[in-house]
Amino acid sequence: MQIGKDLTENIRYMKQRFADCGDIIFREFGAVDGDWRLCLIYVDNMVSTQAVEEIILTNIMNRCDNLEAEGKLHALMHSVIANKDVQIVEDLEEVVQGVLVGDTLILMDDSPFALQASTKGYPNRGVGQAETEVVVQGPKDAFTEVLATNLVLIRRRIHDTRLKVIRNQCGSRGKTDIALLYFSDLVRPEILEQVKTQIQQIQTNAILDSGALEQFLEKRKFSPFPQLQMTERPDKAVAALLEGRVVVVVDNSPFVILLPTTLNVFFQAAEDYYDRWQIMSFIRFMRYVAAFVAVALPGLYIALSVYHPELLPTTLALKIAETRQSIPFSVVGEVVLMELAFELLREAGIRLPSPVSSTIGIVGGIIIGSAAVDAGLVSPAVVIVSALTGICTFVIPNISVVSGLRLSKYVVIFLAATLGLFGFWTGILLLLVHLAELSSYGIPYLYPFCSASANDYRDLKDSLFRMPLQWLKQKLSIFSRKGGEK
Asked: Max alpha carbon distance in the chain (Å)?
């Protein structure tokens, strides 16, 4: 609806749109001895009070005496309102949206348009430290829930005009602000267009977090493994941009989305590149070993102890049999019982306050495991297997891929319990087949362990092992288009 010249009618319409909205402020006032009638509309406590009072209200009241009546709002915008961002709005729906995003809208009598001044000043927690991706050596800052702040954290690390930002909105009611960041000379155009099209086609009321947007963008909805990467670290986001990937920043979320994604990137931590390559290569290799152990160890224990004890060393087989003499449950029941107990401890540790969570996780695990052994409910070997499995999941630096591995572990347990060693290897093979058929925006999920020749084997230098940075800094990643700088 077009803005009319009658200020009273415009205010009446706006008050109808904001009926029963007690936080919407309508400030009517006069200037130039009352000859100019104006109205400010904004959300209380969502704008900077100082900006509204000093930059807009005070200036209009005290500095309009010498302005001509013709083109009043134009004169205010160019000569009176000392705001960095002021734009003309000609539709009342645009006025509504401007108010809701935290700006101040200025309506004036006898003027067919309004001014939208950027006065956002909503509360935020500031830039804190990363909590889910902690590093010993490297930057400590983390993204916040404010999109503008997150963009600054990225911009301060890259001083290059080729870094582009595309703003968009998603959600029919929430209208969440979303920003796409990419390097114009590195990004693959087809990937960028696909992401923009996907976001425009999302049909939902609101996107409350980047995790929700991630689920809308993923291709394989039923896969337990993430096909997009999320991070709260600005340095990881910048590293992804330099590889030619797209970074999606969602307002109200302290996590950003990195795409495309391969399984390999989930085993890369930020500090891998801040320490010597020898030790970090060893640690990265251990992460892959830990991932295999987290999936395979419980199922392998069941298969060997139940179906193939002859494959175990005689001493170990006799020791396991001796400790199980008074156990009322089967080996499968023991393993499932302990695995579920550790899952509950993990979940309890997340929900409890931080000072208490670590105590519950460590002490609870020790007490429950020891009590279960003393009560004769489980054998010591099962406690060791479950504890080692749980420890291995904490080695992997990405919680999303850990969740996929945790679910896959129960599939392997079920197959090993029903088919023995054959079922165990069937479960591992099914897992590898599922990972092999996944892709992220045309990039194979198991790259560079498969299809490495597509990029002349360059990406193998930063896969299972991390080669020296001198070998990596000039490499052309598979994520970037072929015309990128080498």
From this structure: 102
CA dist 392 and 431 (Å) reads 18
Q: Coil, strand or helix: which one is 305?
A: helix
Residue 264 backbone phi and psi in degrees, to 5: -60, -35
Is residue 431 over pLDDT 80?
yes
d(CA 270, CA 38): 53
Instruction: Give the whole-angstrom CA distance, residue 364 versus residue 352.
Output: 13
How sure is the predictor about 86, in pLDDT bands with cuts at 50, 70 and 90?
Answer: confident
User: In this structure, are residues 254 and 362 in contact, taking their beta carbons and an 8 Å threshold?
Assistant: no
Residue 205 has φ and ψ, to the nearest 5°, of: -70, -45
Q: What are phi and psi of 143, to 5 degrees?
A: -65, 160
Q: What is the mean pLDDT of residues 344-360?
A: 69
421 versus 82: the higher-pLDDT residue is: 421
Q: What is the residue type of 224?
A: P
Q: Quote the CA–CA distance of 145 and 160 in Å, as a whole number.
A: 25
Name the one residue in this structure whose structure tokens are 């597509």: 454
Q: What is the pTM of this model?
A: 0.83
- CB atoms closer than 10 angstroms to residue 227: 23
- For 164-185, what is each residue's pLDDT tens digit? 999 988 888 888 889 999 998 8
The SS3 of residue 104 is: strand
Residue 255's φ and ψ, nearest 5 degrees, are -120, 140
Question: How large is the angle between the packed helices 92-100 and 7-17, nearest 10 degrees?
Answer: 50
Report which residue type is found at 191. Answer: I
What would the pLDDT profile of 103-136 be if each residue is shown by its tens digit?
889 888 888 888 888 888 776 777 778 778 888 7
Q: What gap in Å lies between CA 73 and CA 133, rounded to an integer?
A: 50
Task: Give the C-alpha separation, 229 to 245, whole Å.
Answer: 11
If we measure between CA atoms, which residue out of 243, 242, 283 comes closest to residue 465? 283
- Taking Cα atoms as reference points, which of 188, 432, 433, 164 lies closest to residue 295? 432
Average pLDDT, the chain: 85
